[in-house]
Amino acid sequence: MKKKVLFISYAFPPILNPESIQSSRYVKYLSYNNWQSTVVCGDYQTKISKPRDFNLLNNLPSDVTVYPIKPLGPSIINHILSYDILRYPDGKIGWYMPAVKKSLSLIKENDFDVIHSWAMDHISNLVGLKLKKETGLPWISHFSDPWVDNPYHFYGPVSRYFNLKWEKKVIENSEMIVFVSEETKKLVLKKYPNKIQEKCVVIPHCFDAEIITQLPRTTIPEKTKFTLTYTGNFYLQRSPRGLFISLKNLLLKRPELKNHINIQIVGKLPNHYKRLVRQLHIEKIVTITGIVPYIESLQYKKNADVLLVIDAPFKTPSLFLPLKLIEYIGFKKPILGITPLVGESASLIRSLRGCVVSPDDIPGIENAILSLYEKFKENNLSGFSYGDKEIEPYNAYNTSKKLAACFEKVCS
Question: What is the CATH number of the domain that holds 256?
Answer without folding.
Answer: 3.40.50.2000
